[in-house]
Amino acid sequence: MISGLIFIYLFYRGNCFLETWELFSIIGTISFALSGAVVAMEEDYDLFGVYILGFATAFGGGALRNLLIGYPINFLWNQTTNFTIALIAMTIIFFFPHLSIKPFKKLEILFDSIGLSAFAILGANYAMELSLPVSAVIVAAVLTGIGGGIVRDLLAKRKPMVLHSEVYAFWAIIVGVLIGNEYITGNLQQLLLFFAIFILRLLSVHYKWSLPKRSNFQNTSVNTDSHL
């Protein structure tokens, strides 16, 4: 409750995009760092492994985005506050896992959904600051929103969630389209977009929404042939 009030207060402090960026940056960093840490704990990694996977998840997407859209890559090393916050969050969940009542898998999905929403908006805003075209805004939103998760899954020797799981990158694309075309501009609109994408991501997991796969058509063909 308190954290929610602080969130809204910071969001309304002014119309400066920098404050908006900092807010989404902190939310996304904490969420993705915890997402990586939870996966590492699920794989029974030691403390060092938890830190490596958490940091890779939290900052991997941003690094890929900066390289592709031409944003200064050294900006990543200026995020001392975010690095510190991520370190503290991962340390807490490693040494006090009982503070959470949710199984690791549910925690992973929760943190991943929050990070996806926050970082997709953050990435789109970075591209808008550089006055890039809509296509670049979409790429920035997608890379920032899902890049860290891809790095996490690859390091954990898992099939990247974005390539096979329920609807995932699609929500980041929606963010890029809305912000790139300036359908979403102000702080209030971005706040509502954050919650909308977060909820849609959770709904897609709960109801197992997914994009078409080749196996779906093959199964349909087999079923049709069996009835002939």
Q: How many β-strands, per DSSP?
A: 0
Main sheet, how many strands, which sense, barrel? Answer: none
Shape assignment: globular
Unreliable residue runs = 1-11, 13-18
Strand content: under 5%
Following the backbone from N to C, one meets helices and strands in this order, namely HHHHHHHHHH
Rg over alpha carbons = 18 Å
How helical, in percent, are the residues?
Answer: over 70%
Structural class, please? mainly alpha
| Average pLDDT level | 82
Number of helices: 10
Number of domains: 1
Task: Please give the alpha-carbon distance between the first and last residues.
Answer: 60 Å
Report on the structure:
The protein has 228 residues and is mainly alpha-helical. It has one domain (13-206). 75% of the residues lie in helices and 0% in strands. The chain has helices spanning 2-11, 17-42, 47-69, 80-95, 104-129, 134-155, 161-164, 169-180, 187-206, 214-226. Helix 3 runs parallel beside helix 5 (104-129), helix 5 (104-129) packs parallel to helix 8 and helix 5 (104-129) packs antiparallel against helix 9.
